[in-house]
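Write out the 3D structure for:
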Amino acid sequence: MRTSVRKWGNSRGTILPVAALDQPGFELGDELEVIKVEGGILLKPASPAYTLDDFLAGDTQALYALTDEDREWDNMEAVGPEKI
C-alpha cells in the first residue's frame, strides 16, 4: 500500500486506503493517536479524554464505600502516642 503526503490547508496530510483502516477496525470520526516510532509512525485509537465532570457524574458513593475491614480500623481505639 502506498499513499502520498499532500498539502491540506496550512498543514500536510495523507489519505489512508480503506484496507489500511479496516485492519484495526477504525470507524469514521474516530480520534487517533499518532506515535513516533523508530522508522515511522504508529496510529492507534485515542484514549478517551475525561473531564472532572465526567468523573463526578459517576457513582461516587461506590468510590467511598467502606469495607468491614475499613470500619474496623476506623473504630479502633488509639493505643499509643498517635492519640490526638
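The helical segments are 18-22, 52-56, 60-63, 68-74.
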